[in-house]
Design goal:
The complex is a heterodimer of chains A (about 500) and B (about 425).
Chain A lengths: L1 H4 L10 H9 L13 E3 L6 H10 L4 H16 L22 E3 L13 H10 L3 H7 L3 E6 L2 E5 L2 H6 L3 E4 H7 L1 H7 L10 H9 L4 E5 L9 E6 L10 E6 L4 E9 L7 E3 L2 E6 L4 E9 L11 E11 L5 E8 L4 E4 L2 E4 L5 E10 L4 E4 L2 E4 L5 E11 L3 E10 L7 E11 L4 E10 L5 E9 L3 H9 L4 H17 L4 H14 L6
Chain B lengths: L2 H12 L9 H14 L35 H5 L10 E6 L2 E8 L6 E4 H6 L3 H7 L10 H8 L5 E5 L9 E8 L5 E3 L2 E6 L4 E11 L4 E11 L4 E9 L4 E11 L4 E10 L2 E10 L5 E10 L4 E10 L5 E10 L4 E10 L7 E10 L5 E10 L5 E9 L3 H9 L4 H17 L5 H18 L2
The chains are: A alpha/beta (about 500), B alpha/beta (about 425).
C-alpha cells in the first residue's frame, strides 16, 4: 500500500535494505517530460510580463500593484554572491516566467482533469484517485505553476480549514491574503524573494481556524514541467490560535539539460499556542554525473511564531537540485515559542548545497533546536550556514545546534558557517559540529556479519540521518530513505 | 578629506625619502591595494561585527618624523614585564624598532632591521617570507601596514639554537602629545631544531588615541619549536589590529596563547599554516572584557599537508557593554588526509548588556579527517554557585572561584612562570574589582 503513495515506485519496498541496495546504482528515475499544451508568457521579464501574469490569473488591482512594487524593487537589487556556490550568471531575460497547463474548464472533481496530467501523477506514484482512496492525504497538485486538482476540500471545509491554490485565495479570501502575504518575508527581503513576489504563478494557501487540529497531513506536489520555465510558487500557511497543521511538500522534476531556476517563497504564521510542522522532501533533477543540467533551487522559507507558546518545526530532506540555497527560518517573537530545524542534505557528483537555518530569538523563554546532517559525495560541496540570534530582550533563550557532516570520498567538501549572536546573558547557546567519514571498523563490523559493503554503507548513512528522518511524517520517512540511497548512487562502496 | 586621500598624501610625502631600499616596490603595490580596498566596513564579511572604519575619522600623527625614540630607558623601566632581567627585550616605539632601548642577552640571537636583513645575507629568506600573510588577509588595513613598512625587524634563530632567555617584545606607543598610528612589522625565522619563546605586549603612554596596526610573520622549520604569548592589557583609548601569521614549513611544534584583558578595540588575526606533515599547533586564548571594549579574535588554521594536529580553545568572560567576536576557520585541503583539528569557543556573560558573536567555521575537502568544533554562550553555572554558597562561601567569592577555575584552563598553558603569575595577578585583580 505504501509504495502506491510515494514517487519511488519502481521498487517494491520489500525490506528496507534490499531496496536501498537496488536503488543505489540506479539513474534519476523521474526525468520525463509530460506533453501538455502550455499557456506561456513571452520569454523574459518586464513590467508587461508581470501585468500579463496578473491578468492571466484574473487578479484584483491591489495584487497587480503589489507585484509591480516588488518588480520595481527587484530592478534596484543585485544578485547576491555571498553563498558558497558557483554557477554561471542567470539571464533573467531567457526564462519564461509563466506557463500554465491549458485547461478548458475548471475541473469540479478529479475525473475531469487532463488524462495526460493524470498519467504524470501515476508515473510519479501519486495518482490522485489512488491517494484519495488509500490514504487520508489531501493533495493540492501543482503542475507547472497552476493548481489543477484539490482533493478532500469538502472534508476540510467542514472544519473551516481553507486549503486551496494561492490564486484562488487571492480571489476568494482577499482579506486574509492582504493581511498575511509578505508579512513574514517582505517584498524587499532579498533578491529572489522580490523576484518571486513579482512573478509568482501559484502556490498553496492554507488557513487553519482557531482551535482546529487539522485531521490529515496536507500535501502539495510540485513539479517543474514545461521547458524553460522557472517555477515560482508562493506558499502561505496561517495557523490561528490553538490550531495544528502538518504540511508536506515534495518535489521531483524531469530530466533537462538547461538549468532551471526555482525561486519559491514560503511563509508560515503561527499564532498563540499554534503549531505548524512543515516537512519537505526535495528531489529535483541534480544534473547528470558530469554536473550538466539540474535545477537551481533558491528558496526563501520563513516562519513566525507570532503568539506565545507557538511552535514551528521545519524538517527537510534535500537530495536533489544542482544548487540548493535555502534557509528555512523561524522568528521566535512570542514568549515561550519554539523553533525547530531538522535537515538532511545530500550532495553527489557536482551538486552544491548551501543550506541551514536562522533562529531569531526575540521573545522571552524561547527555545530552538537545530539538527543538520550533511552528506557529501563525488565532487560536491555541502555547506551548513546557520544563524542563531538572541536579542537584548530575549530572556532565558535556549538554543542547541548540532551539525554533522559525513564525507564519502576525497574529492568533495563539507563546510560549516554557524553564526551565533548573543545579546543577553541569560541565554544558553550551544553549538557543536563534527566532520568524519564512515569508519572502517563500522564497515568491518557489518562485513563480519555477512552484510555487503554497499549495504553496510547505506545502513550507516541511514543511521546517520535517522535523527532527522524520525521527525518526518511516516509516509515521507520511507520515501526519504529511498531518496537518500538513490542520490548517493555510485559513490558508495 | 577621506581616509584614502589622507593616507595618499602621507604616502606621497614619505615614499620618495624612504624609497631607496628593497621595499619600495612592495610598498607601492600594497598602497595600490589599500587605495582600492580602503578601510574595511561591516559589509566586509571578515569585519561584519567590528566597526574599525570609525576609528579612522580622526587624524593620527603619522608617521613620526624620525626614528629617534621619544621614550627614555628610565620611562621604560616602569613598564617592563616581570622576569625581564632574564629576557631578551625588543622595543618598538610608535611602530619603529629601537636598537638603543632593546637589550639582547642571548649572544646567538640575530636581530636586524628588515632593510639590513634584506641587504646582508638574509635577502633570500626575506624575499621569500615577507608578505606571506597577504595571501591570507586581503583587507585594506593589512595592506596599509605593508604600504608603510619601515623600521621593522628581522629575527633569525639559527639552526639548533635553543634561546635560553625568552624574547620580550614591547610595542610602545607614545600618545602623550598627539593621536598616534603605529605600524610595527616583524619577520621571524626559526631554523631547524631551534627553540624560542616570544612574549609580546602593548603599552600606550599618554591620554591621546593610539592605533597599532601590527603584522608579524613567522616561519617555523623542521623540528623547531615556537611558543608565542600575546598580552593585551592597554587603556580604553587604545585600539589595535594585530596580525600574527605563522607558517610551519617542517614538522614542528607551535604553541600560542593570546590574553586580551583591556583595550578599546582589539582585533587579532592569528593564522597558522600547517605546510608540512606531522605539524602540531595549539592555539589558546582568553579574553576578559569590561566597559565598552571590543575584542575580535579571527583565527585561521590551514591544513595543507596530511597528518597534522591542531587544537584550539578560546574562552571569554564578558562584562558591562563589552562585545566579543570569535571567528575560527579551519581549512582542510584535499591532500591533508588524517588531519585532526579541534576547535572550541566558550563564553561567559556576566552582564545582560554584553554581546557575543561567534562563528566557528569548518571547510573540509578531505575525507579521512577528524574535525570538531563547538561553542557555547551562557552565564555562570547556577548549580555551581549554589553548591559553593550552601557551603558557606559568599556569592562573590563563589563567583571568583568559578571564574578563576574557568580561566585556569588557559592560564596553565602559559609556560614561563613569571608571565603566568603576572597574568594571573591581573585577572584576579580584575575579578576583585569587577564582581560585586
Amino acid at each position: 500500500m505504501k509504495s502506491e503513495i510515494f514517487p519511488v515506485k519502481s521498487q517494491d519496498s520489500g525490506n528496507g535494505l534490499s531496496t536501498i541496495e537496488k536503488t543505489v546504482f540506479s539513474d534519476y528515475k523521474y526525468g520525463f517530460v509530460t506533453d501538455i499544451e502550455a499557456d506561456e508568457a513571452p520569454m523574459g521579464l518586464s513590467e508587461e510580463v508581470v501585468r500579463f501574469i496578473s491578468a492571466k490569473k484574473r487578479e484584483p488591482e491591489w495584487m497587480l500593484e503589489w507585484r509591480l512594487k516588488a518588480y520595481r524593487h527587484w530592478l534596484t537589487m543585485k544578485e547576491p554572491g555571498w553563498a558558497n556556490i558557483r554557477y554561471p550568471r542567470i539571464n533573467y531575460q531567457d526564462i519564461i516566467f509563466y506557463s500554465a497547463p491549458k485547461q478548458k474548464i475548471n475541473p469540479k472533481n478529479l475525473d475531469e482533469i487532463d488524462p495526460e496530467l493524470k498519467k504524470t501523477f501515476e508515473k510519479l506514484g501519486i495518482s490522485l484517485d489512488e491517494q484519495k482512496r488509500l490514504s487520508g492525504v489531501a493533495v493540492d497538485a501543482v503542475i507547472d505553476s497552476v493548481s489543477i486538482g484539490t482533493s478532500f476540500k469538502s472534508q476540510l471545509a467542514e472544519l473551516g480549514i481553507i486549503f486551496c491554490s494561492m490564486s484562488e485565495a487571492i480571489r476568494e479570501h482577499p482579506d486574509l491574503v492582504k493581511e498575511y502575504l509578505s508579512s513574514v518575508v517582505p517584498l524587499t527581503d532579498n533578491y529572489f524573494a522580490a523576484l518571486n513576489s513579482a512573478v509568482f504563478s501559484d502556490g498553496s494557501f492554507c488557513y487553519i481556524p482557531k482551535g482546529v487540529r487539522c485531521p490529515m497531513e496536507l500535501s502539495t506536489y510540485f513539479r517543474i514541467n514545461a521547458e524553460n520555465t522557472g517555477q515560482f510558487e508562493r506558499t502561505l500557511i496561517i495557523a490561528e490560535a490553538g490550531s495544528y497543521v502538518s504540511y508536506l511538500e515534495g518535489c521531483t522534476a524531469p530530466m533537462r539539460d538547461e538549468h532551471q531556476l526555482h525561486a519559491a517563497v514560503v511563509e508560515l504564521v503561527a499564532l498563540e499556542n499554534a503549531e505548524i510542522k512543515y516537512s519537505t522532501v526535495q528531489n529535483w533533477y541534480p544534473g547528470d554525473k558530469q554536473g550538466k543540467g539540474g535545477v537551481y533551487n533558491f528558496v526563501t522559507k520563513r516562519g513566525i511564531c507570532k503568539g506565545d507558546h507557538a511552535k514551528i518545526s521545519w524538517t527537510q530532506v534535500e537530495t536533489g537540485s544542482a544548487i540548493t540555497w535555502k534557509y528555512p527560518s523561524v522568528i521566535l517573537k512570542g514568549d515561550h515559542s519554539t523553533g525547530e530545524f531538522y535537515s538532511v542534505a545530500v550532495t553527489n557528483n557536482y551538486q552544491q548545497a548551501d543550506t541551514g537555518t536562522k533562529m531569531m530569538h526575540l521573545g522571552k523563554n524561547t527555545k530552538s533546536r537545530i539538527v543538520s546532517k550533511g552528506i557529501s559525495a563525488g565532487f560536491s560541496n555541502n555547506s551548513y550556514r546557520g544563524l542563531v540570534h538572541v536579542s537584548r530582550n530575549a530572556k532565558n533563550a535556549r538554543n542547541f545546534s548540532q551539525c554533522d557532516s559525513l564525507l564519502l570520498g576525497d574529492k568533495c567538501g563539507a563546510h560549516t558557517f554557524p553564526y551565533i549572536e548573543v545579546r543577553n546573558n541569560s541565554a544558553v547557546v550551544e553549538h557543536e559540529a563534527t566532520t568524519s567519514k564512515i569508519g572502517e571498523d563500522q564497515i568491518f563490523y557489518c562485513n563480519q556479519r555477512g552484510i555487503a559493503t554497499e549495504t553496510a554503507v547505506a545502513l550507516i548513512i541511514n543511521g546517520f540521518a535517522k535523527e532527522v528522518m524520525n521527525h518526518l511524517p511516516m509516509e515521507f520517512a520511507i520515501e526519504a530513505q529511498k531518496l537518500l540511497a538513490v542520490s548517493l548512487e555510485g559513490s558508495v562502496g | 578629506m577621506n581616509t584614502i586621500e589622507y593616507f595618499k598624501e602621507r604616502f606621497d610625502q614619505w615614499q620618495p625619502a624612504n624609497g631607496h631600499n628593497g621595499f619600495s616596490a612592495i610598498r607601492q603595490e600594497a598602497f595600490n591595494a589599500f587605495s582600492k580596498l580602503g578601510i574595511p566596513t561591516t559589509k566586509n564579511e571578515e569585519w561584519k561585527y567590528t566597526r574599525v572604519a570609525g576609528l579612522f575619522n580622526q587624524e593620527y600623527q603619522f608617521p613620526p618624523d624620525s626614528l629617534t625614540a621619544s621614550v627614555t630607558a628610565i620611562e621604560l623601566d616602569g613598564l617592563r614585564l616581570p622576569g625581564h632581567e632574564q629576557a631578551n627585550e625588543l622595543v618598538f616605539v610608535n611602530g619603529f624598532f629601537s636598537f638603543p632601548l632593546s637589550v639582547i642577552r642571548s649572544a646567538d640571537l640575530t636581530v636586524l632591521s628588515l632593510e639590513d636583513a634584506a641587504k646582508n645575507g638574509f635577502s633570500e629568506l626575506v624575499e621569500k617570507q615577507f608578505g606571506d600573510s597577504s595571501k591570507y588577509i586581503k583587507d585594506g588595513i593589512h595592506a596599509l601596514n605593508t604600504a608603510f613598512v619601515h623600521g621593522g625587524i628581522f629575527i633569525h634563530i639559527k639552526k639548533g639554537l635553543v634561546v635560553e632567555h625568552p624574547v620580550y617584545i614591547y610595542n610602545i606607543t607614545d600618545a602623550r602629545s598627539a593621536n598616534i598610528l603605529a605600524q610595527p612589522r616583524s619577520l621571524i625565522h626559526i631554523n631547524e631544531h631551534a627553540h624560542v619563546q616570544l612574549v609580546e605586549t602593548y603599552i600606550t603612554l599618554g591620554p591621546n588615541q593610539s592605533f597599532t596596526n601590527q603584522v608579524m610573520e613567522v616561519t617555523v622549520e623542521q623540528d623547531a619549536r615556537l611558543e608565542y604569548y600575546k598580552i593585551q592589557n592597554d587603556g580604553a583609548h587604545t585600539n589595535q589590529v594585530s596580525t600574527t601569521h605563522i607558517r610551519q614549513t617542517g614538522k614542528s611544534y607551535v604553541h600560542t596563547v593570546t590574553i586580551s584583558l583591556n583595550g578599546g578595540l582589539i582585533r587579532n588575526n592569528l593564522n597558522l599554516v600547517l605546510d608540512a606533515k606531522y605539524c602540531e599547533s595549539h592555539l589558546y586564548g582568553l579574553y576578559f572584557q569590561t566597559g565598552q571594549s571590543h575584542i575580535d579574535n579571527h583565527t585561521v588554521v590551514d591544513n595543507i599537508k596530511p597528518n597534522c594536529l591542531s587544537n584550539e580553545l578560546y574562552k571569554g568572560i564578558m562584562n558591562d557593554q563589552s562585545t566579543a567576536v570569535f571567528n575560527g576557520k579551519i581549512f582542510v585541503r584535499p591532500q591533508a588526509q588524517k588531519t585532526n583539528a579541534y576547535q572550541s569557543n566558550k563564553n561567559v556573560l556576566l552582564s545582560d548588556t554584553t554581546s557575543v558573536n561567534t562563528k566557528p567555521q569548518l571547510e573540509i575537502f578531505a575525507d579521512d579527517v577528524k574535525c570538531t568544533h563547538g561553542c557555547t554562550v551562557g552565564k555562570l553555572n547556577e548549580d555551581g554557585l549554589f553548591y559553593l554558597q550552601s557551603r558557606g562561601i559568599s556569592e562573590k567569592t563563589a563567583r571568583m572561584l568559578l571564574l578563576r577555575a574557568y580561566a585556569s584552563d588557559i592560564m596553565e598553558h602559559i609556560k614561563p612562570a613569571s608571565i603566568r603569575t603576572y597574568v594571573e595577578r591581573l585577572i584576579v585583580d580584575r575579578l576583585e574589582s569587577d564582581i560585586s
